[in-house]
Amino acid sequence: MAIIVNLDVMLAKRKMSLTELSVRVGITMSNLSVLKKGKAKAIRFSTLERICEVLECQPGDILEYQSD
């Protein structure tokens, strides 16, 4: 996949667990885990917005395009 998800990097920078992010964003642990592992097919802008609010970051800090 050409889109890399750096959610684990941002969680480490913010010293936040996936569980805490799940509670604060209001999304299930399993859905966040799928996103974190790069297995998600899509993400809603509202979810991405909430993740960015909680982690105090930009969408580009979480999602990265990598050409082959």
What does this structure look like?
This protein is mainly alpha-helical and 68 residues long. The chain has a single domain, classed as 434 Repressor (Amino-terminal Domain), CATH 1.10.260.40. It is 56% helix and 9% strand. It contains five helices and two strands. The chain has helices spanning 7-13, 18-25, 29-36, 45-55, 59-62, and strands spanning 3-5, 63-65. The protein has a two-stranded antiparallel ribbon.
Q: Which regions contain 5 or more consecutive residues with pLDDT less than 50?
A: none
Number of helices: 5
Extended strand count: 2
Total domain count: 1
User: First CA to last CA: what distance?
Assistant: 9 Å
pLDDT averaged residue by residue = 94
By helix and strand content, what is the structural category? Answer: mainly alpha
Largest sheet: 2 strands, antiparallel
Question: What are the salient characteristics of this protein?
Answer:
68 residues, mainly alpha, 434 Repressor (Amino-terminal Domain), two-stranded antiparallel sheet, 5 helices
Layout: helices, strands, pairs:
Elements: E1 3-5, H1 7-13, H2 18-25, H3 29-36, H4 45-55, H5 59-62, E2 63-65
Antiparallel strand pairs: 1-2
Structure, briefly:
This protein is mostly helical and 68 residues long.
